[in-house]
Amino acid sequence: MSEKPKRARRSQLSVPGSNEKMLQKAAASAADHVFCDLEDAVAPSAKVEARSKISWALNNLDWGRKTRCVRINDVTTEWCHGDIIEIVETAGANLDTIMLTKPYSAADVIFLDRMLNQLEKKLKLERKIGIEVLIEEVQALQNVEAIATCSERMECLIFGMGDYSGSQGIDIVNIGGTADYPGDIFHFARFRITMAARAAKIDAVDGPFGDFKDEAGFRQEARRARSLGMVGKWAIHPAQIAPALEIFSPTPDAVAKARNMAAAYREAEAKGLGAVQIDGVMIDVAVLRLVKNTLDQADLYGL
Q1: Tell me: the pLDDT tens digits for 93-149?
Q2: 69, 74, 127, 84: which is closest to 104 by C-alpha?
Q3: How far apart are CA 288 and CA 218, in angstroms?
Q4: CA dihedral 217, 222, 224, 225 (to 10 degrees)
Q5: Could you tell me the pTM of the whole model?
Q6: Please, which residues have CB within 8 angstroms of residue 246's CB and are 6 or more apart in sequence?
Q7: How many angstroms separate the CA atoms of 239 and 212, rounded?
Q8: What is the average pLDDT across 193-209?
Q9: Quick one: pLDDT band at residue 182, thresholds 50, 70, 90?
């Protein structure tokens, strides 16, 4: 199995593919992942036209180091195959990933994988296009392990708690909110998605928080997601970019401490020791894994 690209996904910014000005603002934003939307953010009458607007944006705007993604309509719609074909044929060389919506099983993801195989051969594209998948149906959560491992293109599982709440009948008012449930109503889904993603060596990302004026609420949900091992969260408004980047990045102090701990362990290892104490903390191989996670994040984000 080929090694998957390492991409930053701390803040996944959603932008309507039908809005040229918003596409331009998204390319210039601080988000390190942008998905140009062809699904919920675009009216049915505008979906076909939005494809060409997204292709133009991918081919002509300066996206910097951002992960460039397109969210397509699900496989049960009349737009799905057209989304895939037109976007890849017109902008495949400037596209990093495609985000598949509302899969029910691995078969839905394999459909996208097969189409990408054919198009990449036809167009002689040099880079493989990755797949990101939204887990937003109860059937998808039941099949999440199979979905996570069904294609070598799989790079990320995303928890779409809005549609998921509707699918399960969860009683919430705002997308991403937890209503009166004692504790985190989405804990199980987040945990299971993250575990499946980590087992498959791919990323897990948390979905939207609907009230973009409630920064405290957004931060709380982002911290919950990070504590379970998720690497980022959606931003449905530019105001949510900075908090996501902050929360899903290790602090300078944490990076410095991790580097000191790694250096101390390597020095102890060279002396034939299995563990070493630094600043009152015992460092062994298990602790070193946690330290490595911090250092890997620092390298990925250029910290």
Answers
A1: 999 999 999 999 999 999 999 999 999 999 999 999 999 999 999 999 999 999 999
A2: 74
A3: 31
A4: 150
A5: 0.89
A6: none
A7: 7
A8: 97
A9: confident
Tokens 């709440």 correspond to 165
Q: How many CA atoms lie within 13 A of 41 on its CB side?
A: 21
Give the Cα separation of 158 and 203 in Å (integer). Answer: 8
Token pair in block for residue 5 = 């690209």
β pairing state of 281-283 and 276-278: antiparallel
